[in-house]
Amino acid sequence: MEKIVKLSLKSENDCFLIREVNRHIAKAKNCIIITGAGISCSAGIPDFISSDGLYNMIKSQYPGVFRSGKDLFDVQLLRTHDTIKRFNLFMGILKELIVNAKPTATHSFIKKLADMKKLKRVYIQNIDNLEELVGFDVNWQFERVKNCKVQVVQLHGTLSKLRCNACTNICLFTPQYCEIFKEGGAPNCPECVERGRRPHFIGQLKPTVILYGDTHPKGLEISQIAKRDQDKADCLLIMGTSLRIPGVKDLIKGFARAVHGHDSCIILVNVTDVANKG
Ligand SMILES: [Zn+2]
């Protein structure tokens, strides 16, 4: 029988619900976790949809620069010189918040499930890479879909790395590079410089994040992994996301269908209301 336990942090029935959640997780062996911006808010990284979110913070600091929350992550930003500058500025601001952030209790909880051999995989919308700081291997090259041991799928990429737009060399996104982004620029690729390329052919480093309107370069592999995970999933735990991103909604629907019919449960933990259309 499928059991849906909806846990609201504002509910008076919290104790009862938390016991219910514990009971389901205790018997699960292959938890699937899907996370969103909400799990990193207590680390000082605001989400960008809620009223005190990232967009409102940026809007008050940089009036007139961004028109909407979606603007911050839209691939359209990369079309003109002026909007690329805004995008770089935003990436610099966000990276600075991330550099100073520590993993939250939720990150530790997810790692604990992994250590207890209860986690099948965590699908992460967050780009802050805090999961690596609690000890997860995030360097999945997607070359192995069958028996893939890496337990983290970064659905929207990561702001821990930069990729050259000319030679595709990958570098760490260091605090020094952060300063360049915060001025609206993008650093030159050290690999291109070292190869002695002529200035015109030296690439720029771009954050390895997936924007709205962008396709994930490994989207096919991710859907293959998700399909395999669906066969095993015995508990679906969704945390800190308001289910507004269409691709993620589809992923959740797939897992929800898979646990339906087993003696399994779907647990949704979110402070704000979730999208109910579709
Ligand atoms: Zn390069």
Automatic annotation (TrEMBL):
GO CC term, one of those recorded: nucleus
Residues spanning the signal sequence: none
Domain Deacetylase sirtuin-type: 11-278
Lineage top rank: taxon: Eukaryota
Keyword Protein biosynthesis: no
Keyword flag NAD: yes
Active-site residues from the entry: H156
GO molecular-function term, one example from the UniProt record: NAD+ binding
Keyword tags: Metal-binding, NAD, Transferase, Zinc
PROSITE patterns: SIRTUIN (PS50305)
InterPro entries with a match to the protein in the record: DHS-like_NAD/FAD-binding_dom (IPR029035), NAD-dep_sirtuin_deacylases (IPR050134), Sirtuin (IPR003000), Sirtuin_cat_small_dom_sf (IPR026591), Ssirtuin_cat_dom (IPR026590)
Ligand binding (Zn(2+)): C167, C171, C189, C192
A Pfam family matched in the record: SIR2
Family as reported in the entry's similarity comment: Belongs to the sirtuin family. Class I subfamily.
UniProt protein name: 596_t:CDS:1
